[in-house]
Amino acid sequence: MPQITVSQFFIMLFLCRSFSFFTIVPGLRESASGSAGLASLVLFVVFSVLIMLPSFLILRRQKGVGLIEFAYQRSQGAGFACATLFALLALSVAIDNVVHFAVFITSAVYPNDSNVIFVVLFTLVALYMVYLGLESTARFSGLALILLLGSLVMIVLSLAREFDTVGLISPFLGGVRPVVQGGAVTVNESSELMLVLLFIPYLKGNVKKGFLWWVLGVFALLEGMIFVTLCTVGQYAVTQSYPLYAVAKMARLFYFQRMDAVHMVIWTMIGLIKSALYLFIAQRCLCFLFGAKRKNTILLALGGITILCSLLLAHYFTAYQALYNFTLTGIPLYVAVLLVPVLLILIPGRRRKEDKA
Predict the structure, then answer these.
(1) Is the pTM of this model over 0.85?
(2) Any bridge partners for residue 5, and if so which?
(3) H or E element at residue 5
(4) What sign does the dihedral 98-309-325-188 (CA atoms) show?
(5) What are phi and psi of 175, to 5 degrees?
(6) How large is the angle between the packed helices 207-232 and 6-22, nearest 10 degrees?
């Protein structure tokens, strides 16, 4: 069953989290900004570890067993319910990611273009990545990580002369509430926590250790980018629809006079990896329900649903914003990584045949 290493998996999750951060729209979410945002990321680390602790404790003796497999061990009905729930959650994140990408492209990069072509092409490429298999996506992620880190170094070097720490003030100037709220919102939109519990059967290595490295890696990335943004564009970033894209447009290094184009290619690669990862797990969940032999049919159905829903939500942006705000409440995440594991442990496990005898 294992297909990739823990390191490869958490590299993919690192890229997924970075894509959400790079294409963030401040107006769509209430979270800490400025120095308060820097402080809130410490709470992100603490909250992430705490909410995952119960699931890790429950699965600690189930070597190589993920949450869905554990649910089927408890009862057939529990397994069916979990497979259905997580398929819907994974599909909803994949759709959200496609809409996020299409809206970003058609508002910040190509404002006069229709989002239809971007939605269709983006989804088709993501489906092809799922079809090629998890190993191929993992190898592609290694390349994307190298390019991402290289591009971030280029941004920092090109903006070094613009650095000014005048924007760094006390994170608690506006009180403790913005810091706590910022930490909570950052966790609430971290759907990658759900993937950790679902991908365990496909991984080789120490998942808990990999998870801790992932949390610290995300913490370092977000802290670094917020710091660079504060010290280069300051509060001007808050007025921009896509602050980090604005920073990328400012960057100039050697013969790269338009580094935002370079970053767009990299961010598109990362967005595809994220969509492919969630479509993969949605496909696997549905294979529990309809059989592995139908996996290609299931994948085509998921692609059709993703394209249709993405086009509708991109057109009716108010509906998309409402769904996005619901995600930020944390309800879907806490149901997936807290409520479901606790309910499963309360269900009596199925007795083995030798026990019945």
Answers:
(1) yes
(2) 204
(3) strand 4-5
(4) negative
(5) 100, 180
(6) 30
Residues 70, 62 contacting (CB under 8 angstroms): yes
User: What does the pLDDT look like over 143-188, one tens digit per residue?
Assistant: 999 998 988 888 778 777 777 776 666 667 777 887 888 888 888 8
Residue position matching structure tokens 């699965």: 59
Alpha helices by DSSP H, listed for the chain, are 6-22, 35-58, 67-74, 76-104, 116-132, 134-158, 177-188, 192-198, 207-232, 243-250, 259-290, 295-315, 317-328, 331-334, 340-346, 353-356
Distance CA 137, CA 127 (A): 11
* Assigned token pair, 133: 């298999």
d(CA 314, CA 333): 23
Q: What residue ranges define each of the domains in the chain, with the CATH number in brackets?
A: 4-345 (1.10.4160.10)
57: exposed, middle or buried (Cβ count in 10 Å: 0-12, 13-18, 19+): exposed
Q: Tell me the per-residue pLDDT of 84-99, one tens digit each, with 9 for 90 and over.
A: 999 999 999 999 999 9
CB of 41 closer than 8 Å to CB of 219: yes
Residue 59 in tokens: 């699965």
**How does DSSP classify residue 253?**
B
Helix (H, G, I), strand (E, B) or coil at 256: strand
Pick left, alpha or beta for residue 351 (phi over 0 → left; psi -120 to 50 → alpha; otherwise beta). beta
